Amino acid sequence: MTLNQTHDLSLKSWLASADNSAFPIQNLPFGIFRRKDSNEAFRGGVAIGDSIVDLKAAHKAGVFSMALTPVLKTLYEPQLNTFMALGSSAWSKVRAELSAALSEGASQQAMLESCLIQQDKAEYALPARIGDYTDFYSSIHHATNVGKLFRPDNPLLPNYQWVPIGYHGRSSSIKVDGHSFHRPVGQLKAPDADAPVLAACKRLDYELEVGIYIGKGNDLGQAISIDQAEDHVFGLSLLNDWSARDIQAWEYQPLGPFLSKSFASTVSPWIVTMEALAPFRSQWHRPADHPQPLAYLDSDVLRDQGAVDMQLEVSIQTPKMKEQGRDAERLALSNFKESYWTVSQMVAHHSVNGCNLQAGDLFGSGTQSGTSKDSVGALLEATEGGKHSVTLSNGEQRTFLEDGDTITLQGWCERDGFAKIGFGQASATILPAISQ
Ligand code: MN
């Protein structure tokens, strides 16, 4: 992915709120929205400053060139799948024309102003109809921290450094930012108990992850090569893969997570395109004393710019903090560039057996953790399996999450010489379990 004029730091929008916001003119992420509490149809939009460009209205107003009509028509739909399936040249053309129309001095300013909706007057749907959801395990720091809890002498299983590990997740329970869900109920078995009981989860946790949306799919039987992998990726978002650790510990062997994960997942409304992320790519490397990837998971482009320098933050607001008027408090900050496996490796590996990926499929990166205590992306790691608690600034403690807690993920990219871009947020609140 090369840089172009849409990334230029000197580019300014005529919309004043765009400067220094999460959504400057260099970002232009796509989502699905409508006016809050309305009966309007959900439709495609692009975030700019504190507003959303209603793409259907903008198209009808004549903001875009005639040649783009078939592309713009796909953005009238209530999910982005058809647009995603068109491929990167279509996404890039919409971005280029919108960037020009939103720029200072653009002749389209007056007509585009009437197509803006304030974000605080909008509500969102899932950006895509997510056919399949696959969650990876791409942070070696997370895998090591979690592995240590179960196998102190041998935290990493031998396949970890060769295979981008993943499991097939559940897409029906993925919801967009701002929802709430009931604490799950499931089989729990204490280590010293003879038999499990059915009860509300006591060890509810978040997972700080990157969401990866597939754009153009591949035919069944046709693998995607690593150098073509990113042509099949529409963009990135935030993903909280809520996890019931006690249900998970009892059920996960031998086939992996099941009901411990399928009760809820939260995504952010906006998808930041791979093109918008071009300035924030960084080198990927594998330490010399680690196994080097097999050829289908390796390439010069990967080594040169396969990683994404994306800051990831998770914060908590407890019911008491809400009562006290306290803002959410950061629990951890990590960076996706430290991931052991990259987006392109996940795509190449997922399809190497001929599995067909489809537009709107979602990958989770796996919990992104760094090496320091304040960079771990789950409470399971922060509390070493529940052995310690985390103390918040108002004196409250958490080992795992309690009813009423709100967990918010945020993300952003910044680099000297480029505009900082944000991902918005993925936030959700825990409700009490439904009584048995
Ligand atoms: Mn996960």
What does this 3D model show about the protein?
- With 436 residues, the protein is of the alpha+beta class.
- The protein folds into 2 domains: 13-125, Fumarylacetoacetase, N-terminal domain (SH3 type barrels), CATH 2.30.30; 133-431, Fumarylacetoacetate hydrolase, domain 2 (Alpha-Beta Complex), CATH 3.90.850.10.
- Helix content is 18%, strand content 26%.
- It contains 11 helices and 26 strands.
- The protein has helices spanning 55-60, 69-74, 81-85, 88-102, 109-113, 140-150, 245-251, 300-305, 319-323, 343-351, 379-382, and strands spanning 30-35, 43-48, 51-54, 116-118, 122-125, 133-136, 166-168, 174-176, 179-182, 185-188, 197-200, 204-205, 208-214, 233-240, 243-244, 265-267, 272-273, 281-282, 307-308, 311-317, 329-335, 362-364, 390-391, 397-398, 406-413, 421-431.
- The strands form 7 sheets. Strands 6, 7, 8, 13, 14, 16, 17 and 22 form an 8-stranded mixed β-sheet that branches.
- A hairpin with a 2-residue loop joins strand 2 (43-48) and strand 3 (51-54).
- The chain is globular.
- The mean pLDDT is 97.
- Manganese (II) ion binds next to loops.
**Total E-strand runs:** 26
What would you give as the CATH superfamily of the largest domain? Fumarylacetoacetase-like, C-terminal domain
The major sheet is characterized as: 8 strands, mixed
Structural class: alpha+beta
Based on the coordinates given, report the CATH architecture of the largest domain: Alpha-Beta Complex
Beta percentage is 25-35%
Q: Over the alpha carbons, how many angstroms does the gyration radius reach?
A: 22 Å
